[in-house]
Amino acid sequence: MLTRRPRRNRKSAVIRAMVQENQVTVNDFIFPLFMIEGENKKEEIASMPGIYRYTVDLLVEEIGECLDLGIKTFCLFPSVSEDKKDSTATEGHNPEGLYQVALRTIKAKYPEAILMTDVAMDPYSSDGHDGIVRNGEILNDETLEVLGKMALAQAEAGADIIGPSDMMDGRIGYIREVLDDAGYTNVSIMSYSAKYASAFYGPFRDALDSAPKFGDKKTYQMDPANVKECLVEAELDFVEGADFLMVKPGLPYLDIIKTLSENFDIPITAYNVSGEYAMLKAAAQNGWLENDKAMMEMLLSFKRAGASAILTYFAKEAAVLLK
Q1: Across 96-159, where does the E strand assignment appear?
Q2: Separation between Cα atoms, residue 235 and residue 105, nearest integer Å
Q3: Residue 73 and residue 190: Cα distance in Å, rounded?
Q4: For helices 291-305 and 315-322, what crossing angle results, to 10°?
Q5: Active site residue ranges
Q6: What is the C-alpha to C-alpha distance for residues 249 and 269, in angstroms, rounded to an integer?
Q7: Per-residue pLDDT reduced to its tens digit, 171-202
Q8: Residue 208: is its pLDDT beyond 90?
């Protein structure tokens, strides 16, 4: 006799929906958007089909379309010309630079949009690294001052959530103090706490032309082999004042998302990175995978692992399906 028949709870769509343990909704999404200088330009990124770089005027239109679909949170990434890059990333905290102008423009048009920023030197650095470089070494403490200036400039321009992605030691506490001293106590920090030195970032670096000019980022991004190290990084960020902890990449690091969700009582964010997006798009274009079903299954995996939010290039596509 079979007394336990799990299939009874799968026998109809209504029952399956009733007992579903995890669900993806449009409220889970943070949509990454790329910016370029100029006017009335929209450039598709070759390695990320369907994802574009926008000038600010067209970026505002894109955000309006996304708000209509229910996407409310956006993370902005800048692509600036080489002549605006230097060794200390001064363009990153220029109040009249592309980034700060974009934040003010979007907030003026759509004050209801939640804007997350990127705090790291690499988009503005002539070295392509996330910190100040001296004699081939990435300087930690000297970099914090630059990151603090960037975070403050972004808060002044209207940022709701600051996203330090640099992986310098002590940057969360430093940035929190800078923001609080300037009166921006309500500006949140979403820390890239477990950011691994991954091979899945290639299309993103193409989008921003931000690859390192020499070496790699292994002295500050985490070793993909390590799990316990993420607890050390996350604990430091938590104590220093982070409001969210991020895991990047997402799909190859579901165990890390699970580990952090089981050890910290603040929201965990999964970054569904450019390489993960590109893999699925390439497979779908070749007819090897069905894009929509694989996309939604991928997004669901982050929620099942314990993520409260998902930073994903699939946000707009998924929002259309969910609507």
Answers
A1: 114-116, 132-134, 137-139
A2: 36
A3: 13
A4: 100
A5: 195, 248
A6: 10
A7: 999 999 999 999 999 999 999 999 999 999 98
A8: no
pLDDT the model gives residue 31? 98
Which candidate, 33, 84, 92, places its Cα nearest to that of 58?
Answer: 33
Give the position of tokens 């902890």. 245
Tell whether omega for the bond before 32 is within 30 degrees of 0, i.e. cis. no
Contacts of residue 79, defined as CB under 8 A and 6 or more positions apart, other chains included, come to: 34, 35, 36, 37, 53, 123, 207, 208, 209, 210
Q: In the predicted model, what is the mean pLDDT of the chain?
A: 95
Of 244, 291, 249, nearest to 266 by C-alpha is 244
The whole model's pTM is what? 0.94
| Residue 293 token pair | 């079903």
Element containing residue 16 per DSSP (H, E): helix 13-18
110-149 per-position pLDDT tens digit:
999 999 999 999 999 988 898 999 998 999 999 999 999 9
Beta strands in the chain (DSSP E): 29-36, 42-44, 52-54, 73-79, 114-116, 132-134, 137-139, 161-162, 188-195, 244-248, 268-272, 309-312
